[in-house]
Amino acid sequence: MSKKAKNITRKDFITRSTMATAAFTALGPMAVTGRNLIKKPMGANDRINVAVVGIRGRGRGHISAFANMDNVRVKTLCDIDERLFDERLDMAEEIQGTRPGVETDIRRVLDDPEIDVISDATPNHWHSLSTIWACQAGKDVYVEKPGSHNIWEGRKMVEAARKYNRVVQHGTQIRSSEGIQEAIQQIREGLLGEVYMARGLCFRWRGDIGKKPIKPAPKEVHYDLWLGPAQYVPYSESRVHYDWHWQWKLETEI
Questions:
Q1: Among 119, 124, 192, 222, which is least packed by CB within 10 angstroms?
Q2: 54's torsion region: left (phi>0), alpha (psi -120 to 50) or beta?
């Protein structure tokens, strides 16, 4: 990655990548739960080929859910860390009977004409760009929360899905639950009177991630691909995989 590329802003990256345009319509909440599916025999032409992008955390659940669907095949696993592949490949093969292929670069996944759906469990800073790219490549998308880094990016995702006529679902699964729907309906019917403000808070006790040194990335980790649209910061184990949640720079300056 050149020095010039390292200093590019996230918005510039997306703009220069000719991003254009989608509605958070619906693959349906079963896209990541795999529950209550009506199982029936399906021919090869009916089968949906899925690529799971980001396979360490939530991606593991995506692999399991899609691999358990009779009309779906997990065709490709994509991650920047090659050390994750063997275990996830074994898991997918045990469930569906076939072993997926692997890629480290999402762009190669999007080049595959057999892929129908991208299931995105990448870090937050990749969500909007990967969704827009997938729409441009003619793929439907399931993308984990948060859908975008800011409102501007979110609108570009909506525009992309509409322009390319793709199905895009944002993974706020709890909003589809019966209890939440009932509560919303009760509020609309006046149970709480006139509602003028709502706040959502989430507090969770989490352990200290510690301080890990700056060092070269392992040879199996494609760190430039992990950064993607984010501004360059040196590699540290405190940044990759789940610990990126604690990195203020990644959350505010990309």
A1: 192
A2: left
